[in-house]
Amino acid sequence: MSSFTEEQIYRYSRHIILPEVGGKGQKKLLSSRVLLLGAGGLGSPAAMYLAAAGIGNLGIIDFDVVDMSNLQRQILHGVEDIGKPKAESARDTIKSLNPDVKVELYKERLSSENINRIFENYEIIVDGCDNFPTRYLVNDACIMMGKTNVHGSIFRFDGQVTVFKPKEGPCYRCLYPEPPPPGMVPSCQEAGVLGVLPGIIGTLQAVEVIKLILGIGKPLIGKLLLYNALDADFRQVKLRRDVNCPVCGDNPTIKELIDYEEFCGIARH
Amino acid sequence: MVTIKLFAVYREKAKTDRIELDIKTDTAIKDLLEILKERTPSIKDLLTGGRGMIAVNQEIARLDTVVKDGDEVALIPPVSGGVLV
Question: ipTM, 2 decimals?
Answer without folding.
Answer: 0.87
